[in-house]
Design goal:
Mean pLDDT: 91
Number of helices: 14
Strand content: 15-25%
CATH topology of the largest domain: FAD/NAD(P)-binding domain
Number of domains: 2
Number of strands: 20
Shape: globular
Largest sheet: 8 strands, mixed
CATH class of the largest domain: Alpha Beta
Distance between the termini: 27 Å
Length: 529
């Protein structure tokens, strides 16, 4: 990617006061939003703001504070290229460590002055006559921006299953992503609904506190062991060598692409990895009845693979019960399953994931002619490589539809999207136009390729799955490797896939000095971008 700066754009007659309109508005303060902020600064764009409804950065790593919360991707791979992880002690970081890392990104790259925390974006409308975006915050503030980048991610809105009587339970109830630390769970009967990654991580903690834990399983997951959380002494010594961190990070990425990505297509690594998962289950769970309940009946990779060393052992503890009968209802005292059995509970914890297929909600996004993005996506979201949609000029997505990587590093995927967005903004400036959008032809060609690629994965036959929209459309995962994603983006340069929407009224001044944004800038109403 070129390192040339993106030129700030000014309309004819623009005054200094009007420069308060943003060049770019970024929505979201997780890996994608902060990474975008760093890239904007490095590209010479300084008139931008990063919005979020919360009072701190971090995204999902701010919201998920449940006991045992950690990342199942090595930290060297789960970090931004602008600030690669270089700790020689920890291989798999915990939630507090990841949150501390993201806060350090803000501090080290001077992003604090661009943050607009506590400012939830509720509406985003493209103004055709002004070739810019109008954003409305929850407080009613109006913000104008030449371009908008939505970096809200896929896993941020908790999903609560529709169960009859759910609201009648009289004890504490909360989702893992909204953990209530004020609830005392000691010596209690606890019901955990769900068996995904968050359930696997909280169970070892709950078994040490609770009198009894019942885990309600709808579908078993494939589980694989992972290396130790910390590095051993030999690895620590090797990581101190020049270039060792970069080599290790690169090796992890190559390994994920070579071994994990083919699993999703039943490639060469699927059978041996599934064999290893079955052997791991057999080694951890000696009870054949329990082992049968925990054995998936769908191909490995059909749902996201869980990497965990303690989940199976926790299920074998005497105070833990795995319930596989379907939940039929909830009453004031517990959970009912098929056969009218009531399982008493003092507290219910939902480990039921997120509304992952509902992209960008609850933001009301409207493009040219005030077309509604969510109306377009009512049968399942689609986007050009998960980052742009025809009809929405100067609007970009990070971690949009079909760009979640279930077999590698999502920060790496986001970095490729960020680089591409910067290229789009640079190309827009070079051709002297006010707005660009991905062409319908490029979108159709990409969708044909994507549909064919998805059809050759293990996902079409697996239900239920958070990879899918309720209509059955696969909306979330990327069906290939990270390297393939990067290579395809390079083939689809903005000049080949985007079109100009409107023309600037004046030429851009060569190599301008970008205006430095003041601390906590207020964005004023203006009549043109």
């Amino acid at each position: 990617m070129s390192a040339l700066p993106v030129q700030p754009r000014r309309s004819a007659g623009t005054s200094t006061a009007e420069d308060s309109a943003l060049q770019v508005a970024v929505v979201g303060v997780g890996f994608g939003g902060l990474g975008m902020g760093v890239a904007l600064q490095r590209s010479g764009i300084h008139r931008f703001a990063i919005f979020d409804h919360a009072s701190d950065v971090g995204g999902v790593w701010r919201d998920n504070t449940y006991p045992g919360c950690h990342c199942d991707v090595p930290a060297h791979l789960y970090s931004l290229s602008a600030q690669p992880y270089r700790d020689t002690r920890i291989r798999y970081p915990s939630q507090p460590q990841i949150l501390a890392y993201l806060r350090s990104v803000v501090a080290n790259h001077d992003l604090g002055r661009h943050l607009r925390l506590g400012a939830a974006i509720t509406q985003a409308t493209y103004l055709d006559d002004q070739a810019c975006w109008e954003l409305i915050t929850g407080d009613g503030e109006r913000v104008l921006a030449e371009a908008v980048v939505f970096a809200v991610g896929q896993l941020h809105r908790p999903h609560l299953p529709e169960i009859p009587g759910r609201d009648t339970f009289t004890g504490p109830v909360f989702h893992t992503a909204r953990w209530d630390h004020d609830v005392d769970l000691c010596d209690k009967d606890i019901a955990v609904v769900g068996t995904g990654a968050s359930a696997a991580q909280i169970l070892p903690h709950l078994t040490q506190l609770a009198r009894h834990v019942r885990v309600f399983q709808r579908t078993p997951h494939w589980v694989l062991p992972k290396p130790a959380t910390g590095f051993g002494p030999i690895t620590r010594t090797m990581l101190r060598l020049p270039g060792a961190h970069h080599f290790y990070r690169h090796s992890l990425g190559v390994g994920a692409d070579a071994v994990l990505a083919p699993i999703m297509r039943r490639g060469w690594s699927a059978r041996p990895t599934e064999w290893a998962a079955r052997r791991y289950l057999q080694h951890q769970v000696s009870d054949p009845v329990l082992r049968a309940k925990l054995t998936p009946h769908y191909p490995l990779g059909g749902k996201r693979i869980i990497f965990d060393n303690h989940y199976y052992r926790s299920l074998t503890r005497p105070n833990v019960e795995l319930v596989t009968e379907p939940i039929t209802g909830i009453n004031p005292n517990g959970i009912q399953t098929a056969g009218s059995t009531t399982h008493p509970a003092d507290a219910i914890i939902y480990a039921t994931g997120f509304k992952a297929s509902e992209f960008l909600l609850p933001i009301d996004v409207r493009g040219r002619g005030e077309i509604s993005l969510h109306q377009q996506w009512r049968n399942g979201a689609r986007a050009f490589f998960g980052l742009a949609v025809p009809g929405y000029p100067n609007a970009f997505l990070i971690a949009g539809p079909n760009s979640f990587n279930p077999a590698g590093s999502n920060p790496a995927m986001k970095q490729h999207q960020i680089d591409y967005i910067i290229d789009c903004l640079r190309w827009r400036d070079q051709i002297g136009t006010a707005a660009i959008e991905v062409s319908h032809e490029a979108m159709r060609a990409h969708q044909r390729w994507l549909d064919d690629a998805l059809a050759h994965t293990v996902w079409p036959a697996v239900t239920p799955s958070w990879f899918k929209h309720p209509t059955g459309r696969i909306t979330n995962p990327w069906p290939a490797s990270t390297r393939r994603y990067k290579r395809l983006l390079r083939r689809h340069a903005p000049a080949r896939t985007f079109t100009a929407h409107s023309t600037r009224t004046t030429a851009t001044t060569p190599n301008p000095t970008p205006a430095r944004q003041p601390e906590n800038p207020s964005v004023h109403r203006r009549t043109a971008c």
